[in-house]
Amino acid sequence: MTTLLCVVLDINQENWDLPKTNNSMNEENGSLELGKFLDKFFVFLKTFLLLDPQNEFSLFLNSSSRVELIYPKPQQKSTGKKSKINEMKKERTMLKELYLKRISQQKHRKKNQLQNKQKEQIQMDFGGGGGGSGEDEILRMKEKSSFEKEIKTSISDFLTNLKPNSVEGKTTSLSESLSRVLCYINSVLKKKERQRISQQQSSNKKNTTNTMSLNQKKILSTEERVRQLELSQMLADSALRPRIMVVQLSKDVPSQYVPVMNCIFASQKIQIPIDALVLSKVDSMFLQQASHITEGVYYKTTRQTEILQILLTNFIVDHWSRRFLKLPKPSNIDYRATCFDNQKVVELGYVCSVCLSIFSKYSVLCPNCHTRFPIKKIDKIKFNSKK
């Protein structure tokens, strides 16, 4: 199953030990060095790409002031019809190449099964993955694995462009990053759907324009059906299954409770799991609820030496194959809400029936939606509760 992994990396300057500070990565001070963490994280991304040559990933940087997509870099909007036509031509040629490769593979398998088995073993040894020629697959993997320098330069540019006054404590905007990721996933899925529709339309046009005799059509009708089935299977296999992974060091911001919960319920409705790797001593209440509601993985650790092992064992598996594995689950999940006024965690509080906002103290007027509550009904409820 091909997956689209969207990573949100907490890049707050106060939570990381940057190379300029010359602080070593040790367990005594509990601090993480950004360079060493990125080296381990790149190993995780490379293994993720090796699982399937069609896997894709994107990286978002999250700070207290802004959220930015650094990989893949967003394409500039093309002006004019020529650029759009060129993009459509490239998409069609790529789909044609995939279709022709699938047909050539089936012909070779029918002729010489033994030779094909040997070729498949050689391709698997060289990272071919059993699809297409080994050289093409190796070139694709080289192109995908050349993201380290690009990500490191973009992270350094991101940190240099940050203003010192913009960092307000050890917090990040989790709600903004989740909403940006969901919008990005929506745009990618729509683009894939357009590619499928364009290929189906082109294949239907070719079938209608071909003029053949009746006997030839009867003979080739079965072959065309088989090709159409193979093409539909190929498109179904190439469909991306998105999931979100959040790497967080900062503390939760209680004022972001409502937008974060809205993003969590939106991802639950679209069936997008949210995985969370918390690299701090304190648990994240928001990410615990997010991973539990969306059926994701939540893991908290403060040991720097275990990060690579945790990434490769818990976060590399896709959502479908997690059914067959026993992954760690948080035992104590904090489901408490936060008050909208004082922004403190509330065990028992008052809920507005219109906007569902939560408050620790009783008030006749809701400060968010400004709705008035009938005092007589509230007095009756209080009187019945005392009984």
From TrEMBL:
InterPro entries: TFIIH_Tfb4/GTF2H3, vWFA_dom_sf. Pfam families: Tfb4. This is Transcription initiation factor iih tfiih polypeptide 3-related. It comes from the Eukaryota. PANTHER family: GENERAL TRANSCRIPTION FACTOR IIH SUBUNIT 3, TRANSCRIPTION INITIATION FACTOR IIH TFIIH , POLYPEPTIDE 3-RELATED. GO terms for cellular component: transcription factor TFIIH core complex; transcription factor TFIIH holo complex. Belongs to the TFB4 family. One of its GO terms (biological process) is regulation of DNA-templated transcription. Keywords: DNA damage, DNA repair, Metal-binding, Nucleus, Transcription, Transcription regulation, Zinc, Zinc-finger. One of its GO terms (molecular function) is zinc ion binding. It is found in: Nucleus. Residues 105-137 are annotated as: Disordered. Its main location: nucleus.
